[in-house]
Design brief:
By secondary structure, the protein is α+β, with helices and mostly antiparallel strands. About 30% of the residues lie in helices and about 20% in strands. The strands form three sheets. It has a five-stranded antiparallel sheet with strand order 2-1-9-8-7, sandwiched between helices. The chain has a two-stranded antiparallel sheet with strand order 3-4. The chain has a two-stranded antiparallel ribbon with strand order 5-6. A hairpin with a 3-residue loop joins strand 7 and strand 8. The longest helix is centred in the N-terminal third of the chain and has 21 residues. The chain is globular, with a radius of gyration of 23 Å.
């Protein structure tokens, strides 16, 4: 009898484990209700705190279309309110994130602010020159001796996607770019983005700087929890201020998000909260953003990677939204 009980107990544990991973039951575990193993087993899901409870789970072998012809490399549209996938193409494929990297940069900066090691209103004095090994890099034009607040740098980082703002924030937050990147990778792992690796805070191309659409979804969820970052993303224009040799210099920032800059028509029935675009030769045109339905208030996280051009990027985003209803 003891042997039979042990076998039965082992069987229950095995089925619980499988059920937890597969999500095949919608029951909730209750210690007050005994478990019965009958002819058909339908045991409740047991989910320890934080395990697949806050995120949509997409199996690694799901939504693979490597042989199909798309005008992009990967996409992902998730209904966060209903916790379900609306559409997906290659969500676990390794991609280059380009400036979508900056959502993680902003998260690491905000972590330092929340920990009290730096402040949003701190004045950052630009030390050594900020240089890049590429041409036509989008920059604010920071020079040694300039001083600018952390808050203004975050506006430049997120709204206009200035790469020198990313470097300035990294240096000020962690002391060096390399130490800051270490924090980025630690944060990515903490958030479950274990198929990513970052080597810089701005997203300019490096073969060892990569992520996946699903990993970016996990990172972006964390970004959306921070009201300071969401408030910055909500601005359709912003007058950034810095000082050089006691002279105040101001730059009007226009969002790189074509919907917010009105370069492309905003899909009707939705408004945007958080977002980040990205563009490099290797990454193509990319965007990650959250749409909220004006009718139902459902939240949708949408990502599209490596579109052929900017026009195709926004065209395909609109097509993805048509799959919702």
């Amino acid at each position: 009898m003891r042997c039979l009980n042990n076998i039965l107990a082992a069987f229950i544990i095995l089925v619980l484990s499988i059920t937890m991973l597969s999500g095949c039951s919608n029951q909730t575990y209750s210690v007050d209700r005994p478990l019965h193993v009958g002819d058909s087993v339908d045991l409740p899901i047991v989910r320890p705190s934080g395990l697949a409870s806050e995120h949509v789970v997409i199996p690694y072998d799901a939504y693979i279309y490597d042989d199909a012809e798309f005008e992009f490399e990967a996409d992902l549209l998730i209904n966060e309110t209903q916790n379900k996938v609306v559409t997906a193409v290659n969500p676990h494929k390794r991609i280059y994130p380009a400036s979508m990297t900056k959502i993680l940069t902003a998260i690491v900066v905000m972590d330092a602010i929340e920990q009290g090691s730096i402040g949003l209103s701190d004045t950052v004095v630009i030390g050594k020159k900020i240089e890049f090994n590429e041409d036509n890099v989008s920059v604010l034009g920071l020079e040694p001796g300039d001083y600018i607040t952390v808050e203004e740098l975050l506006h430049g980082l997120l709204i206009a996607s200035y790469n020198d703002c990313a470097v300035a924030l990294a240096r000020y937050t962690a002391g060096s770019v390399s130490d800051f990147v270490g924090r980025m990778n630690e944060k990515a792992i903490e958030l479950g983005a274990t198929n990513s690796h970052f080597v810089n805070p701005h997203g300019l191309h490096d073969n060892n700087h990569y992520t996946t659409p699903y990993d970016l979804y996990l990172i972006f969820e964390e970004f959306l929890k921070n009201q300071t970052l969401v408030q910055i993303d909500a601005k359709t224009t912003y007058l950034l201020t810095l000082y050089r040799d006691e002279e105040m210099l101001q730059t009007e920032l226009i969002p790189t998000n074509g919907f917010l800059s009105q370069s492309f028509t905003m899909p009707t029935g939705y408004h945007i909260t958080g977002w980040k675009t990205g563009t490099t030769d290797k990454a193509g045109s990319c965007i990650i953003l959250e749409f909220v339905s004006d009718e139902t208030n459902d939240r949708f996280i949408c990502l599209l990677s490596n579109a052929k051009d900017r026009e195709k990027l926004y065209e395909n985003i609109e097509n993805m939204l048509k799959e919702i209803y």
